[in-house]
Specification:
Shape: elongated
Number of strands: 12
Distance between the termini: 29 Å
Keywords: Bacterial flagellum, Cell projection, Cilium, Flagellum, Secreted
Protein name: Flagellar hook-associated protein 1
Strand order of the largest sheet: 8-5-6-7-10-9
Subcellular location: Bacterial flagellum; Secreted
Organism: Clostridium simiarum
Family: Belongs to the flagella basal body rod proteins family.
Strand content: 5-15%
Order of helices and strands: HEEHHHHEEEEEHEEEHEEHHHHH
Helix content: 40-55%
Radius of gyration: 38 Å
């Protein structure tokens, strides 16, 4: 209605509107440094004006307005910038985890230093060269034995450090899986609360900020895809996957989580051959605190597939499960089997446990999985080096010696066979360490003091090119390695020939170190470049969603003056009403 009382109501609405706008401004200022906060804006619009002229009301020149109101409190957010930040955060998470572990790998290999494998290998060959000059000397033999033992011990230590690095990677993966599931549960609760508030007609801005902050953190673990639903709800899934981790319409049958593979055992028979059985232990949702979460799985695969199947499980270490912790197919979420009360999982016929492997495209988990593959690669290369060293030295040391008297220089300290020597178990024979005079320096045990043919052959290994790269592929024993090269005809045949397709032992190790150094440098550059790119996107997002104190102070003054002006209108209307009501008495 028009008139003084209509003017009074317009001013009253104006005061309420400016007061609410002041509240929003105050909230922005209070959260200027709150992580994840998006600035808010009061959307002011006019209230419903007087109706059109009709038979029941008087015609007026145009519609008469009735004031203003707060239509909504908007959250200023750019979803495209959110997508860019989260995508680049996933990439940064992958590069950072990779760079961290590659740097640790560099520290483990400890090259180039005076105590590294390269230096010790050089001293090893040098000691044999010195022994060839003094074949009768016990001191020279002791030096050769000790230098050999030092090299073997360093190989052992390096291998063990690589094993510990893998264990560290496993522990970080377990923690990441547990953290991911915990964050997903928080996002799910916020998702349901946000929709409930929205259904009631209000805008849950602060709750949405909390949810977005959790999603930002989650994006560092793996790449995510967000589908918006009704009432500000979301569906969340990994990029490239159709399985939802969060659903707006909450249905436990359509929601999936992650679990952690803790152990993979390749079962062998009495002869040491694979039986085809693989025993797997995984923990539901990565929670190892309760024995109830432990699940055992027994797989039967073709013997030829044991290594590849086990390696895939060891490298991924993360599987898809339903909300009860049972493995599901990553393609469609269908169950892969059943579990009994004892925690034993039985795979359904025709199903493959590998179908449950979680394979992120980016993120910290992807980086951890790639590092696991790198560590295994360097372990494998170190094992090849140890085998080449042990087999070539043993071949020279035992050549043309009666089998009953043949004494291997390098042995498997774990009690295994010569073929099973690795960088982790290579050692100098204890018999030799106790009595260095058992080292064969000449043609045989009856050689004269000047006979140094075997020592020379040992020293010559430094420049001998062997098919080290083929060990584990076409070369699986000492005899295979020697056959790939052959013996020199001269010098009584104790010198191993060079294979032009082979690599020298010191060169093989240096190539391994150089490759690692290059990878580490590339990872470091990638981290630096990615941080700059992400900072650029975050700055752009902050320019949209961040709180500017200067802007808020300007708004504060603007709303304050508007509030005062509306109050002045009320004061003026009060004076006019006083004239109308009390002035007529005079």
């Amino acid at each position: 209605m028009s008139g003084l009382f209509g003017t009074f109501n317009i001013a009253k609405r104006g005061m309420f509107t400016q007061q609410k706008a002041l509240d929003v401004t105050s909230h922005n200022i209070a959260n200027a440094n709150t992580d994840g906060y998006s600035r808010q804006r009061a959307k002011i619009e006019t209230t419903r004006p007087f109706a059109k002229p009709s038979i029941h009301n008087v015609a007026e020149p145009g519609q008469l307005g009735t004031g203003s109101q707060i239509a909504a409190i908007e959250r200023i957010r750019d979803s495209f910038l959110d997508f860019q930040v989260r995508s680049e955060t996933s990439t940064l998470g992958q590069y950072e985890s990779r760079y961290k572990f590659l740097s640790e790998l560099e520290s483990i290999l400890n090259e180039p230093t005076d105590t590294g494998i390269s230096t010790l290998m050089g001293e090893f060959f040098k000691s044999w060269q010195e022994l060839s000059k003094h074949p009768e000397s016990s001191n020279a033999r002791t030096v050769a034995a000790e230098k050999s033992a030092a090299l073997a011990t360093t190989l052992n230590h390096t291998y063990n450090q690589l094993q510990k690095l893998k264990e560290n990677s496993k522990e970080l993966t377990k923690d990441a899986v547990g953290e991911i599931n915990a964050v997903l549960d928080q996002i799910d609760r916020l998702n349901q609360e946000i929709m409930a508030v929205k259904v009631s007609g209000k805008m849950p801005n602060d709750l949405m900020d909390q949810r977005d902050l959790l999603i930002d953190g989650l994006s560092k673990k793996f790449n995510i895809n967000i589908d918006k639903s009704n009432y500000e709800g979301i569906n969340l899934s990994p990029e490239g996957s159709d399985l939802n981790m969060i659903r707006a319409v909450n249905n436990e049958e359509d929601v999936y989580r992650l679990s952690y593979v803790d152990g993979v055992e390749k079962v062998k028979d009495a002869s040491g051959a694979y039986t085809g059985e693989i025993k797997i232990v995984y923990y539901k949702f990565g929670n190892k605190l309760s024995a109830e979460n432990k699940v055992t799985v027994s797989l039967n695969v073709d013997k030829a597939d044991v290594e590849s199947t086990a390696r895939g499980l060891e490298q991924s270490k993360v599987i898809w499960t339903d909300t009860k912790g049972l493995p599901v197919n990553k393609a469609d979420g269908s169950s892969l089997g059943t579990i009994d009360n004892s925690g034993n999982f039985t795979l359904d016929a025709g199903k493959s446990f590998a179908d449950a492997l979680f394979e992120p495209l980016k993120g910290e988990l992807k980086g951890l999985m790639s590092i696991d593959r790198d560590v295994e690669r360097y372990e494998d290369e170190l094992n090849k080096l140890a085998k080449a060293l042990a087999w070539s030295v043993n071949a020279i040391h035992t050549k043309d010696v009666d089998a009953a008297n043949a004494l291997d220089f390098f042995v498997n300290k774990d009690g295994g066979t010569e073929a099973e020597i690795t960088a982790g178990n290579i050692a100098v024979n204890e018999v030799i360490m106790k009595d260095v005079m058992k080292i064969l320096v000449g043609q045989d045990e009856k050689s004269g003091e000047s006979d140094n043919v075997r020592a020379l052959a040992m020293a010559a290994l430094k420049d001998t090119m062997l098919m080290i790269q083929e060990i584990g592929e076409t070369i699986n024993s000492k005899q295979d390695l020697i056959n790939s090269a052959g013996w020199e005809v001269s010098s009584k045949g104790f010198f191993i020939k060079s294979n032009i397709k082979g690599i020298r032992m010191d060169s093989y190790f240096k190539d391994m170190v150089n490759t690692l150094g290059t990878k580490c440098q590339e990872a470091g550059r990638a981290v630096g470049n990615q941080k700059k790119l992400l900072a650029s996107f975050e700055e752009s997002r902050l320019s949209v969603s961040g709180v500017s104190l200067d802007e808020e102070m300007a708004n504060l003054i603007q709303f304050q003056h508007a509030y005062q002006a509306n109050a002045k209108i009320i004061s003026t209307v009060d004076e006019l009403l006083d004239v109308v009501i009390n002035g007529l008495k005079r």
